[in-house]
């Protein structure tokens, strides 16, 4: 299960994001984030597979305003490095 917890301009993603969750979340992807969201914090994302990473990038692309992904876990950083996606992620929220 995965949760989107909005706190001002930051949305905290909690739980696990695998292909199963992506399939369930895909139809509602347009409404998961507030239009005010500027940052998606991944600190509490316990696990993501490649489908989860693709979903995060889809959220960035479809969001109405610039959206940064920050604070990826070590597990997620391995996927980011594997797919050469460093330009989409920042280390931490300011």
From TrEMBL:
User: Gene3D superfamilies, per this entry?
Assistant: STAS domain (3.30.750.24)
Q: CDD domains this protein is in?
A: STAS_anti-anti-sigma_factors
Report domain STAS positions. Answer: 1-94
Q: Which PROSITE patterns match?
A: STAS
PANTHER family linked: BLR2341 PROTEIN (PTHR35849), INTERMEMBRANE PHOSPHOLIPID TRANSPORT SYSTEM BINDING PROTEIN MLAB (PTHR35849:SF1)
Protein name as annotated: Lipid asymmetry maintenance protein MlaB
């Amino acid at each position: 299960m995965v949760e989107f917890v909005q706190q001002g301009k930051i949305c905290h993603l909690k739980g696990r994001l695998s292909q199963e969750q992506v399939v369930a979340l895909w139809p509602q992807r347009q409404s998961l984030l507030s239009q005010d969201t500027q940052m998606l914090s991944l600190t509490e994302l316990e696990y993501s597979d490649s489908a989860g990473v693709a979903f995060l990038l889809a959220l960035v692309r479809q969001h109405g305003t610039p959206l940064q992904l920050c604070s990826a876990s070590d597990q997620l950083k391995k996927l980011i490095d594997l797919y050469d996606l460093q330009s989409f992620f920042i280390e931490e929220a300011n």
